[in-house]
Amino acid sequence: MMRWCWTGAYGAIERRHIVSHAAAEAAATASQKVALVVGSTGVVGAALLDILPSPDTPAGPWKVYALSRGRLPPWSAPEGAPSSSNPNPNTNPVVHLHVDLADPAAVAQALQPLADITHVFYTAWSACPGATEEEAREANCDMLRNVLSAVVPSCPALVHVCLQTGRKQFVDPFEPLSGISAAIAAMRPYPEDVPRLEYSDLEDVLLDEVAHSWLNGAAAITWSVHRPATVFGFSPRSESNVIASLRVYAAICRKEGAALRWPGSRVAWEGFSDASDAELVAEHALWAALEPGGKNETFNCTNGDVYKWKNLWPMLAEHFEMEWSGYDGEDKRFKLEEAMAGKEALWGEIVREKGLVETELNDITAWWFVDALINADKEQLENMNKSKEHGFLGFRNTMTRRSRVSKTLKTLVSSSSLRKTNITSARSTQKTLKNTRRMSPSRLPVLEDFVVTLRRYLFV
What we know:
Mean pLDDT: 77
Distance between the termini: 45 Å
Pfam families: PRISE
Number of strands: 11
Radius of gyration: 22 Å
CATH architecture of the domain at 12-236 and 275-304 and 380-397: 3-Layer(aba) Sandwich
CATH topology of the domain at 12-236 and 275-304 and 380-397: Rossmann fold
Shape: globular
GO molecular function: oxidoreductase activity, acting on the CH-CH group of donors
Protein name: PRISE-like Rossmann-fold domain-containing protein
Strand content: 5-15%
Strand order of the largest sheet: 3-2-1-4-5-6-10
Number of helices: 20
Domain PRISE-like Rossmann-fold: 35-323
């Protein structure tokens, strides 16, 4: 069996930002792989956009269509028009399209002209605030169906569809992560064949739409389903933004002169948890899209290790140079969604004081999601054996990935020249990178990593 091997894959996102745009653009012209990334402003979608256009990506550089509902953040590269109308709009190899996935007519209008798509990476998901569980399931199924019904008949070169779901395959209801049946809990760490729950509806839609291509006599389209755990990464438009939410919480506590208090359960504090690095999930999807071992299968996707929140919490407090407290009894628990209500003006002060990009508090946080995660009453773990047996051997060290970000920021943010870096300006970023090259080679990767991290994490 062919084993997945991507030389130098670790840190692909960081390298992506220092690759010559001219080289990437020239190589993209000869590329035969064309990706549609749906949900491109989400955590994993953003990681895919970082990885796919790189010349050293397998089968890369890829031509990429990025589909999202909202407009891009102000620090993003300029938007371009689809290549059919403007083959060289700018040096950014990603073409951004904005459409509401719940509108079938709008989706069809946007996607049907893109006949060169070869791969679909579907990472979109809507929490559907105010909807019942059944209504949310139906709404998300409609979104996926609208995309595939537009792409499958219109793209003769389409060969594979990657669908990202998640832990809700195993845990229901989602808010909070409690009420899990004893039979399901006994199967932890969860294998892929746990009995059907919510995300199986999406899998049904995927299989139905792919089957339509077979019935019409087209070439068989393969598929894969990816089930990450809690995704660690960043995107300002994600509905499940754990890292950004916790960093905002810490920044607000520090501004108020308060300690960083643990709001959640004893189980979440002391028990084992697992996570999925956004870059790893993107690589997992890319592996399945290209390798025979990843075709027509469902896979869990986690970092391959475990961590405890009681070990991560002091690291977060250390980065912000503040006192902290851990689990201190049931009577001391609280919901972040309630505690952070009305903090918009305070966040605005932090933004102005730190010279950050203007952001709305609710745009970059997901308090409800963090509350669900840290109030779990049972440990949540997944089994990665199937991925390894099929040839994917990727992993991430959760503790070092998390600490690397915090230590880099803590070390470098005191530099006045870097503190004032204008992350909305590509020219400013390039100038900063140019200046760092005057330093020692051992220092260079750390500084480049800082610039990338600053652009992605927004705040210090």
